[in-house]
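Field: COMPLEX_INPUT
Field: COMPONENT_COUNT = two
Field: RESIDUE_TOTAL = 363
Field: MODE = joint
Values follow.
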Amino acid sequence: MAGTPALTGSAVLSHATYIQVRKYRGHLIVALDDEAVELDDVTEFIFKRLDGAARVRDIGEAVAAAYEVPVDEATADSIEVLTDLLMGGYVQVADGPLREA
Amino acid sequence: MSTSHNLDGVLERLRGEGLLPTDTLAVLCVGSVARGWANERSDYDLVVVTREPFADDRARGLPVPLQPATLPTVGLRVDGRRWEIKYWLDTQMDQMFAKISRERFEAGNHASRALIDVEELALERLIPAITLTGEEWVEARRRELAESAFRSFAVSRSLAGMDSAVEDALGQLAAGDAESAVLSARRAIGHVVDALLESHDCYGSAQPKWRARRFREAGPAEVPFEQYWALETMRDLDPAAPDRWVERTVQWCRRLCMEVEV
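Field: COMPLEX_OUTPUT
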């Protein structure tokens, strides 16, 4: 889709500056202004690893190890999850390649 | 070091002073004495719960958002020590518990404060209180507290404080005001640690002077005491690069926030 940011495995992301995060009944809820999203287990796993230093590929490797899936598949899934979070404004690109699709 | 206190004569003294109504349901010693944190100069904080409103010329009324809207409080000096006695009505307790029901929390009322400080203090102090009389009343209220959304309201309030402090810190940093950002980030530490301790049913955020004591008492697995204490005392703050400390601290607060169950 035109205008959709496409992340690469080399991108580095961090949590967006003005989000609010709550752990409620064992799940993370991330809010920005009046919008909120409840993270599923995999998304939460990925979200917690955003530190402004880890590359998306590193996170994909962590997902692969934790969920016993191939690294390429885990990295692709991580990119998909992070793209959604990026579009929602819940995360931001700290460093690395980001291109317009 | 804690100082042990002999509470044996408290009820007799209250009765002798005309400060123990006949319809008393419970008398509790609360605060630092009850928690074992008192020193020789600490006040005795006492709570008397009655069925009917307490009236006495020595009482001053604290405003509370309840019916009746006054909390009678008597100050007394006994053997060189100050006693402060608050007289709560059982029906005022009912009203406070109604404010912190699970239904109210689930309805989204956690965004605003459910209780003012004096109310929150009254409820949180039920847990570590020493009961001088009225064991049955106290145990019933403790069970009610455990079943309520008190913890969720307290954690939400502290985390909202953290969000506000973090927003301040980042805004001040962006504006080049690193000194103010340091103070805001320090405030964020206090709020998120309070939230963590409250999630472990260890309350008292209105009195930050006891935070280290509360941390030791709760012993949260999420953060070792040494790590908390290094942040609380700003040990890693480099005066030449305060912005780095602010960024690290904000990140730490946010990470801890993710581990605190509301």
